[in-house]
Amino acid sequence: MSKFILRRLAQSAFLVVGVAVIVFCILRFIPGDPALLMAAPGTPKQAIEGYRTLFGLDKPFGVQLITYLSKLAHGDFGTSFRYQTATLPIVLQRLPNTLRLTSLGLFIALLIAIPLGVEGARRRGSWIDRFGLVLSIAGQSLPVFWVGLLLVLVFAVHLRLLPAIGSVGWKSIVLPALTLALAVLPPLLRIVRTQMIDVLSQDYIMTARVFGLSSPRIYYWYALKNASIGLVTVLGVQIGYLIGGSIVVEMIFNYPGVGMLMMNSLNARDFPMIQTIAIVVSVTFVLINLLVDLIYGLLDPRIHVEG
Description:
Elements: H1 2-29, H2 34-38, H3 45-55, H4 61-73, H5 87-122, H6 127-141, H7 144-158, H8 174-200, H9 203-210, H10 215-253, H11 258-268, H12 271-299
């Protein structure tokens, strides 16, 4: 197990470095000059060139890349063009907000997907099964930004139950989390239902029924535990989608997370900040996927992690 973890961490390190290099290269080729964006209208050319020198943009591309990777190897993620301070503390300050948002969104999605998926598999063709299928199709079809705006219109504008923007108290996170939950709900609901249908046809479920075990114990303990392997696999993918989808959601609700910081940094062409966000998100995603692999062994002892 320890060898497996070390091997995965080594592979992840190469992956993160690859992401850093790719993001660095893409940023240097997209339109927009950070020096021009920083300078006020009418700023002399000499001052603009001074900004480029300050940002290190006056050097050849290869020199910039080598300098960046060298600093990164020593734990220096760079200085923000916009804030003129180290980028990593700013990103780490915003990261808990994004993780809180995505965690709550995932929790709400699972809270809906698991009972609907189990009951849909248990009572195929019933109203609850049809309701789950309709909800899955609707969630898959509706864009995230449209769902977010609709929730704002209903719960913030008309009913005035929840705030539309900002981050003041627990109520501020409800609408963004619900928007994310509806976005990831369809694949979770489908995989729970599909896996449960397969598991419920197994012999050991029939045996449990013969021995007179209660239905909740059969469905929500024995069957769901084995059906969860497929669910965990989908979760690993959907968490990446959640982190990416949080950018749109944070923009809609003006939520102070990494996604909002990313969009503001893109508009300002703040290259070091964007690069740091990409690295931090990559590390987070890699660690989550490593955790998913380890959970497999806990759900099914027959699965052994080699190494």
